[in-house]
Amino acid sequence: MNENTTVLISGAGIAGLTLAYWLRRHGFAPTVVERAPAIRAGGYKVDIRGAALTVAERMGLMDEIRARRTGVRSGTVVNAAGRRVASMDGDTFGGRVHGDAELLRGDLHQLLFDNTEAEYLFGDSITGLTQTDAGVEVVFDSGLVRTFDLVVGADGLHSATRALAFGPEEEFLRDLGHRIAIFGVPNHLDLDREEVTFIGPGRTALVYSTGDGADAKAMFLFRSGESGGTAVPRGREAQEKALAAAYEGEGWEVPRLLDAMPAAQDFYFDAVAQVRMDRWSSGRVALLGDAAYCASPASGQGTSLAMVGAYVLAGELAAADGDHRAAFAAYEREMQPFVERNQKLGPSNLKRMVMRTPGAVRMSMAMLGLMNRMPGRERMMAKVIAPIHAAATAIALKEY
Asked: Among 54, 137, 115, which residue's Cα sits nearest to residue 315?
């Protein structure tokens, strides 16, 4: 019989739902609290790579994951005039190899939710934690007060659980000097499972569609300074102004994409940042996924880190019969080398994704154009993809 049975998970994202699945499978009683009123739909496309594929296979979900793949067929890079510089197949463009799967975040959320048995507290959040020898007394925003054996914060980059148990986020966030914005736009380019990327000095913009419908997604990635430059503006109006200012005077379809910004219902804007912590547990509270070791969107590994971390944390709790001290220590030992390898991808990928100067843009466009015409370009792209695959497989998963 497990020593600690009741586990509160803060956040019904990919990390939290995967953890709830494995905890239930190992005989624990998970409760998931989520600020949103329901499972989040839509969202950006995400990749499941390497060791995370093994986790999904052990959950019996790979057939359903593959059935929900975006099926993006091609990726194209264009210049300011909209002329195609280079094109390649969607998997190569996205750095996917060896069965890696791309799907919409919302589709993965729903799939995990449908296959997980847990108690859910939607429309609520944690506002207070008090640890005792017997458990953790949790105060919720709704006024509810309950006690759990353990608490796991899987509530993202700006984790409220981390702030309550470890301290303010400024102590742990490492700003990578870039900002990211994502929102839905009309599919005025009539894209059908296609992605188009424009690269300007210090700023990149892309738009893609996962079908032939009326909707598409736009993403903007731009430099904000060597160490973050200015703080992330607060409030949507200020964030929209900051994004428009960053891309002022830009070519291609950028002005038209930005014109769609005010009407977007899914506007997202934040720093491209990592979470760096010496430890991911404090007493009976542990952290998981982006809350503990965000590698940044530039790594392309957030989803895989979340799924692998959840599998390992639940497995170590089961292996230790719920002894949280032993389990949390083992979780950190197993995950730290994997996390470190994947976090290195963020800064290195940013150098390829955002060119600093007009000269660097011209050189990048020339190289892409040359590579697009050369035989053996697949081998050249394989060398670019190799570090991503190596990081994604840099852990040997135990059988718990």
From this structure: 54
In a domain, 356, yes or no: no
DSSP string, 231-269: PPPSSHHHHHHHHHHHTTT--TTHHHHHHTGGG-SS-EE
In total, how many domains does the chain have?
Answer: 1
Residues 313-363 have pLDDT tens digits of: 999 999 999 899 999 999 999 999 999 999 999 888 888 888 887 888 778
For the CA atoms of 23, 29, 35, 39, the dihedral, rounded to the nearest 10 degrees, stands at: 60
Put simply, whether the predicted model's pTM sits higher than 0.85 gets the answer: yes
28 lies in which domain range? 6-73+98-172+274-347
Q: How far apart are CA 28 and CA 316, in angstroms?
A: 12
Token digits for 32? 């998931």
Asked if 275 and 292 count as a contact pair (C-beta separation under 8 A), the reply is yes
Asked if residue 48 lies in contact with residue 101, where contact means CB atoms within 8 angstroms, the answer is: yes
CATH of the domain at 113: 3.50.50.60
| Residue 39 covered by a domain | yes
Query: Residues 278-310: pLDDT tens digits?
Result: 999 999 999 999 999 999 998 989 999 999 999
Residue 399 to residue 38: CA distance in whole angstroms? 32
Domain annotation covers residue 82:
no
